[in-house]
Specification:
The complex is a heterodimer of chains A (371) and B (98). Chain A has 371 residues and is mainly beta. Chain A is built from no helices and 30 strands. In chain A, the strands form eight sheets. A four-stranded antiparallel sheet of chain A has the order 3-2-1-30, with no helix packed on it. Chain A has a four-stranded antiparallel sheet with strand order 4-5-6-7, with no helix packed on it. Chain B contains three helices and five strands. The chains are: A mainly beta (371), B alpha+beta (98).
Chain lengths: 371, 98
Amino acid sequence: MSLVRVLVGTRKGAFILISDARRKDWQVNGPHFAGWEIYHLKGSPADPDRIYASQTSSWFGQVIQRSDDGGNTWEPVGNKFLYDGDPGMHQTFDGTQVPWVFKRIWYLEPTPNDPDTLYAGAEDAALFRSSDGGQTWQELSGLRSVKGNLWQPGAGGMCLHTILLDPKDPDRIFVAISAAGAFRTDDGGQTWRAINNGLISNFELPDSTAEVGHCVHNIAMHPTRPDVLFMQKHWDVMRSDDAGQSWVEISGNLPTDFGFPIAVHAHEPETIYVVPIKSDGEHFPPDGKLRVFRSRTGGNEWEALTNGLPQKDCYVNVLRSAFAVDSLDSCGLYFGTTGGQVYASADSGDHWAPIVRDLPAVLSVEVQTLP
Amino acid sequence: MIRVILPNHLQSLSNIDREVALDVEGPATISKILDQLEEQYPMLRGTIRDHVTKERRPFLRFFACGEDLTLDPPDTPLPAQVVQGTQSLRIVGAMAGG
């Protein structure tokens, strides 16, 4: 029977949750790296026992950890993230210019066919690549040339938080940055273009349709249709059918279109999920009800999924990397909250149950489906 | 031998006990001690000071012999008790966060 391994990054360590395909009984392992912030863990599609973790601390800086046995043991690898040349300046909150300074790695994306090659998304925003299992890192600095001087931090910092690799074209990569927007390369990361046409940021930008500066919270794709992208922006849920050339709003009947994660069902490319949050000033679910919303129509028409989720007095948040989808026949969904709960559904969101309730605040959730 | 005490998180990162003994050639300074520490424990590179500039990370401090050496230039000779190994150099995570 298949196994499911859920990789959870928290404010105070990493946890690995393991179940068989029934996804009823869970073994909780951890904390790994106790006391450190674990922004993200992700396994290699080419070798699922190869897992990378971003371990970080205000005191001690950035560490990258690597496991070759599914997260039982770990080895620190390279943490030398140097910008390529003089990175110059970018905007800060009040519009003044400040120097680019490396702070941490938000996101790790191993490549599909080589466990030693992976990408890392940094704050201050940049994309790094390693081809030696994380020992050394090189910046793909062409990204910053897309008006990087106009990028600015969101509340969490100026972070490159999402990396999507096109499964059909190894030279095409999508990234998202808060608050700069979405970007795409078609030549393996040498040159980049902003893909923000159609985004409207009335409250955040002086020019609401600017080429860059939008606070994109998360983007997602189905691997069989890499030209179709879904986006949770600061406000607005968006969709692109042309690899980001243009976007249309699909917020439809959502109770609020603010939120952080967005995800696509493993087997239904038009089924997508968001977790609406009241507002940018009130980072908790509307009316104290923790609801995942599902659209089976690729947006606009949404239904609330509530079975097993708290429907009163719930004021947690679900962060952008804290929602994951497994690939079992009955598609499993997982999300973690800032209150330390990790919820799972083994039936596409119809029913939910907590795997754990009292972890530190959850920063990220990924899932591996193992044979 | 010079004795260095690391903060707990760096002990676990480098998989060493509370105290590590280092051989440092010539007049011992914080700079030389960190060079030797990073040579023996490469995973500590970047966690105490910057990879390139060698600037101390802002939330770390250096104590020895009841004195705060944090703001001394890193090439300042260390007290004789540290050099002789009768006192340890303590690398300390600054109080921050309650």
